[in-house]
Amino acid sequence: MGTDNDRDGRGVAIADFDNDGDPDIAINNGQGDSGIAERARARLYRNDVGNRRSWLQVELVGTRSNRDGIGAIVEIDADGDRQLRHAHAGSAYSAQHSKRLHFGLGSIDTAVRVTVSWPSGLVETHADISINQGIRITEDAGLELDVLPKETTLGGSS
User: Fold this and answer.
1) CB neighbours of 140 closer than 8 A, spacing ≥ 6?
2) Which helix (H) or strand (E) is 155 found in, with range?
3) Judging by beta carbons within 10 Å of its beta carbon (0-12, 13-18, 19+), is residue 25 exposed, middle or buried?
4) Which 3 state secondary structure label does DSSP give 40?
5) Between the CA of residue 120 and those of 48, 87, 103, 143, what are the distances in Å?
6) How many CB atoms lie within 10 A of CB 113?
7) 54 and 107 Cβ atoms separated by less than 8 Å
8) Do the beta carbons of residue 68 and residue 87 sit within 8 Å?
9) What is the 3-state secondary structure (H, E, C) of 106-157?
10) Rounded CA Rg of the chain
11) CA 62, CA 145: separation in Å to the nearest integer?
């Protein structure tokens, strides 16, 4: 079963709810014309396809900039291949996607360099970051590795 259902879908958010490196989908449902509360249950569609590729997730904590690092630009350099992500808010209809920045790294199997350009103007670079993990970067205070708990137990994806 895909993400199609007979509910009155009103909001969708994409996030790695189980911290396994692949995005999952949450759908918030309205009651619809029937007004039946049962129809209003949110649904979590867990991506259990499995990670066949490398990835890195970056969580930002601003100190001189805003707390969530909104407006920051994060650049990943993986063996000369560069990716940019812009930290932003307000990314979904009737929902909010995760503020973690997800980088799909394909077949890269080496450490990467992460550069953050903060809204305050500060630019920080962290080298030799291992892949397939979540990291937290705090503005002007450094980096924490493996901050995301490994896969958690979630309910089914019905």
Assistant:
1) 63, 64, 122, 124
2) none
3) middle
4) helix
5) 39, 14, 23, 18
6) 15
7) yes
8) yes
9) ECCCCCEEEEEECCCCCEEEEEEECCCEEEEEECCCEEECCCCCCCCCCCCC
10) 18
11) 17
Tokens 């503020």 correspond to 99
| Structural element, H or E, at residue 105 | strand 101-106
The answer to whether the CB of 46 falls within 8 A of the CB of 24 is yes
Using CA atoms, how far residue 99 sits from 37, 58, 152, in Å, is 30, 9, 19
> How far is it, in rounded angstroms, from Cα 29 to Cα 96?
14
Is 0.85 topped by the overall pTM?
A: no
Adjacent-strand bridge partners of 99: none
User: pLDDT value at position 46?
Assistant: 84
Partners of 11 in beta bridges: 28
Q: Write out the DSSP string of 61-86.
A: E-SSS-TT-TT-EEEEEETTEEEEEE
Q: Consecutive 10-residue runs of the chain (158 residues): their mean pLDDT?
A: 61 80 79 58 77 86 93 94 90 72 89 96 94 91 68 47
**What domains can be seen in the chain, in order of their start residue?**
8-45 (no CATH), 54-144 (2.60.40)
Q: Which two tokens stand for residue 98?
A: 């995760």
